[in-house]
């Protein structure tokens, strides 16, 4: 049976949002247009704009709303000066980041025009930015690999951390990100008990997401969740990939993890992992 791939991030998000237990894990996410950009940046200081179809973090942009401090540095503020400053309309600027570049704009209209020139009318999503935990001052997120086991049940088989490359806004390995164990990254921010509880939570979240997506896409056999952990240690599903990369799990010392992943992939017929079954060549 052909393995079902779903390239559209929006289609997957809509299905996940139908499950009330999973809804709290999805950041505010909408289809991109100028109205959504204005409203989202009114609600959130940082948003991500990402293509509805695409992988490896390609095409992802980050927009930020920043208040300008017009007072010269070092100037002492009198009470009278501060009262006047409070009554003065706030001066706002917007920053657009992509790759390692950053550009500033004075209005939401200018920002939208710059984004539109890069999206060229294609469907993009806009998502609330999550303040990620850091490793050596670089943000990281987690990849949760979930597969159908030979018994036909969803099982979380892999978990790893992805640390962003210097000045990059995405953590993907293909964009220069560094792969580390989830245990080591979480251990920098949590005590042993909280770390174990979080890992268990991540595994359960992966299985629950697989089950929910299967209600709409019955031919799905594997998914990769990109999960953010914020400063409060809350979990957020940033997106779900239905053609997840497996090779990164081969890097760890514990080779039994990759052997199990490979055995499951062979069982359900992923291309390159056995002689049976077909896999779509489209990235999803």
UniProtKB/TrEMBL annotation:
<dbReference type="InterPro" id="IPR026838">
    <property type="entry name" value="YheC/D"/>
</dbReference>
<protein>
    <submittedName>
        <fullName>Glutathione synthase/RimK-type ligase-like ATP-grasp enzyme</fullName>
    </submittedName>
</protein>
<dbReference type="Pfam" id="PF14398">
    <property type="entry name" value="ATPgrasp_YheCD"/>
</dbReference>
């Amino acid at each position: 049976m052909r393995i079902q791939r779903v390239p559209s991030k929006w289609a997957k998000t809509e299905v996940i949002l139908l499950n009330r237990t999973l809804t709290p894990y999805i950041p505010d996410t909408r289809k991109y247009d100028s109205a959504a950009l204005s409203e989202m940046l009114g609600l959130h200081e940082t948003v991500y704009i990402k293509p509805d179809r695409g992988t490896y973090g390609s095409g992802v942009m980050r927009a930020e709303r920043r208040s300008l401090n017009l007072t010269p540095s070092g100037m002492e503020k009198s009470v009278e000066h501060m009262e006047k400053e409070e009554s003065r309309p706030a001066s706002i600027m917007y920053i657009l980041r992509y790759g390692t570049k950053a550009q500033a704009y004075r209005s939401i209209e200018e920002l939208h025009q710059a984004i539109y020139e890069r999206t060229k009318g294609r469907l993009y999503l806009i998502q609330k930015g999550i303040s990620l935990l850091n490793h050596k001052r670089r943000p990281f997120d987690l990849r949760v690999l979930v597969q159908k086991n030979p018994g036909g049940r969803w099982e979380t088989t892999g978990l790893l951390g992805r640390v962003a490359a210097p000045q990059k806004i995405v953590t993907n390995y293909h964009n220069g990100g560094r792969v580390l164990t989830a245990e080591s990254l979480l251990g920098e921010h949590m005590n042993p008990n909280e770390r174990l509880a979080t890992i268990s939570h991540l595994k359960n979240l992966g299985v629950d997401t697989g089950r929910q997506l299967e209600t709409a896409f019955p031919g799905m056999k594997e998914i990769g969740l990109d999960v953010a952990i914020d400063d409060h240690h809350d979990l957020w599903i940033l997106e779900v990939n239905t053609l997840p990369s497996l090779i990164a799990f081969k890097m760890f010392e514990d080779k039994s993890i990759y052997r199990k992943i490979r055995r499951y992939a062979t069982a359900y017929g992923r291309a390159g992992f056995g002689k049976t079954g077909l896999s779509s060549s489209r990235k999803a």
